[in-house]
Write a structure and sequence with these properties.
Blueprint lengths: L12 H16 L7 E3 H8 L3 H9 L6 E2 L5 E4 H9 L10 H16 L1
Helix pairs in contact: 4-5
C-alpha cells in the first residue's frame, strides 16, 4: 500500500471467522479488565517520586510485577488494597484522598 492510500479490508470467509473468534473472546472476558499501572502513572496519581515507589517495592509495601520489556507494573487492585490496608501510605495524602485519586484515574480510563 502506497503512502497516503487508505486500506480497506475486504471481508472474506477467513476474515469473518477471525472476527467471530475475536468477538467471542471479547464477550467471554471479564468486564472488569485487569488494569496495570506504570511507575509514571503512580507518580502522577499520588504526586510521589520514583524513589518512593522503589522503596515501597523493596520493602514489600507495594506489590509489583515485571511487564513487557522489563517495565515495572502494578495491578490496580493490589495498589488499592495496599492503600486501604495502610500497607502503602503516601505522605501528605489521607487514605481516602489516595483511594479517591486511584478511583478517579480508573474512571477516566473507562470513559
Amino acid at each position: 500500500i502506497a503512502a497516503g492510500e487508505k486500506h480497506h479490508m475486504i471481508p472474506t470467509k477467513n476474515n469473518e471467522a477471525l472476527f467471530e473468534q475475536f468477538n467471542a473472546y471479547m464477550e467471554g472476558r471479564d468486564k472488569n479488565f485487569e488494569l496495570l499501572l506504570t511507575d509514571q502513572e503512580l507518580q502522577t496519581i499520588f504526586g510521589i517520586s520514583r524513589m518512593t515507589l522503589y522503596r515501597a517495592r523493596r520493602s514489600g509495601k507495594l506489590p509489583y510485577e515485571n511487564g513487557f520489556g522489563g517495565q515495572i507494573v502494578y495491578r490496580f487492585e493490589n495498589v488499592l488494597l495496599a492503600v486501604k490496608t495502610n500497607r502503602f501510605m503516601i505522605r501528605g495524602l489521607t487514605k481516602f484522598d489516595a483511594i479517591e485519586r486511584l478511583e478517579t484515574f480508573k474512571k477516566m480510563l473507562e470513559l
